[in-house]
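Tokens help. Consider this.
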Amino acid sequence: MPIYEYENKLTGKLIELSRPMRLRDDCPKHLKRVIARTACRIGSGAEDPSHAAQSVPRALRECERTMQTSELERQSGFSVKEMKRIWKIK
């Protein structure tokens, strides 16, 4: 299960929760999901391989290889058309 970061609106503290993708926004009202930055550079400009900009595309490619399309659509909440638009595939 993926780990998501949430900000507690009452205290301002950040917490991490491990939740299924389809339930990531189904959380208590005092928590707000933190949206990750799209890129992060370390040292001499190399991207951090553990950052979302690197790990998410790699994970999606792995899912495409191991899951049927209908299962990927069901678990992610995105249709194939939406995924193609996100990946900018024509």
